[in-house]
Amino acid sequence: MSYLASLWTQLIAWVSNHFVEPAVVFLHIADTAGNPLEISEALLIALLQLFIIGFIFRPLETLAPAERWEDRGLTRIDRLYTLLMLLGLFPLFSYLILTPFANMLGGLGGEADAGPAMSSGLKHWVPWFENHPYLLFLVYYLVYDCVYYWMHRAQHAIPWWWALHSMHHSQRQMSCWTNDRGSYIDGVLQSFILATVGLAMGVEPSEFALLGLLSELVQNLSHTNVRFGFGRIGERVLVDPKFHRLHHMVRDPERPSLHNCNFGQVLPIWDILFGTSLYGEKVRPTGVSDPMVDADNDRGLVGQQWQAARRFWGAVRRPAGWRLGEVSFGPDYAPVPSDEAEHLPTRTGTGPAGGAPAA
């Protein structure tokens, strides 16, 4: 283990010396970008995540698919989204952008003139955590995951936010690459919310990178097109592919609220506690029944981003865009309550577009 740790440290230093430090100097952000070693570690973690998705999760989809597709064509754009997101590192970079502002204020939870060694956040408020780093990290993670759960529920309940988030749900062929498919406006908004929570808790950039890695890997797995889960006990400890696939199911007109379930990112405990968990349902087609949003599958990356932005503008500037509830979008991008939309449902989940459950 010590050899691997030493090798990892050397690799971080090499990336920092040869890539990160020259880049921040070239961009004239060396004074505010943070520790180059921490940025280098985050980049290496992103490459590790990409390796796990491509060489572990992707083969599982071939071995035990939840749905069999004759053509995986719709998954290609999600793979592009994953590459762009991992290289862009939205959550971590948002955190590093916010850090200089926190430093100018002396750190959240500390005094303005206390200096960089002053503890902040939870360690400032509860000094006992200084000597219990593993318990501190567990608290960090519980808060982070709980904030994500409620943020995710807001993405579905607030029409202007759903206008953005719906692009993530439009995918008919949900796969290990789908996690990073989403509106970049939505991504920035999510990132700043989570980064602000991280700063408020006093999370170090390296700890935030680990938070992000753990969360992203579980989400990559939970989106994977496989038919297995973690068992009756495990599925109540961690979000598994069966659990999250139900969250992505197409709206059932006979049970129109069924798909409003399983919002948890990593821990299903929040769904269990707040009454949104759903277990035991059969494999269902994924995607959306709103034709305005489903049309995202016929567009490229730029087209998807543009249409999500148009839906957002159509909703945010109207009073209906601020009324809580599930909506579809009309031809002029106006949000319409889904139970009043005459065009629902439009998909059955059969044929080349929807796929079919695996035998």
In short:
The chain has helices at residues 2-26, 36-63, 76-88, 90-104, 121-125, 133-157, 159-169, 184-201, 205-222, 231-234, 241-247, 269-273, 291-294, 301-316, 351-354, and strands at 67-68, 327-329, 335-337, 356-357.
Your description of this structure?
The chain has 359 residues and is mainly α. The chain has one domain. It has helices at residues 2-26, 36-63, 76-88, 90-104, 121-125, 133-157, 159-169, 184-201, 205-222, 231-234, 241-247, 269-273, 291-294, 301-316, 351-354; strands at 67-68, 327-329, 335-337, 356-357. A two-stranded antiparallel ribbon has the order 1-4. Strand 2 and strand 3 form a beta hairpin. Helix 2 (36-63) packs parallel to helix 9, helix 4 runs antiparallel to helix 9 and helix 7 (159-169) runs antiparallel to helix 14. The radius of gyration is 21 Å and the shape is globular.
Question: Which keywords apply here?
Answer:
55% helix; 15 helices; two-stranded antiparallel ribbon; 359 residues; mainly alpha
Basic shape: globular
The number of helical runs is 15
Oligomer: single chain
State the strand order across the main sheet. Answer: 1-4
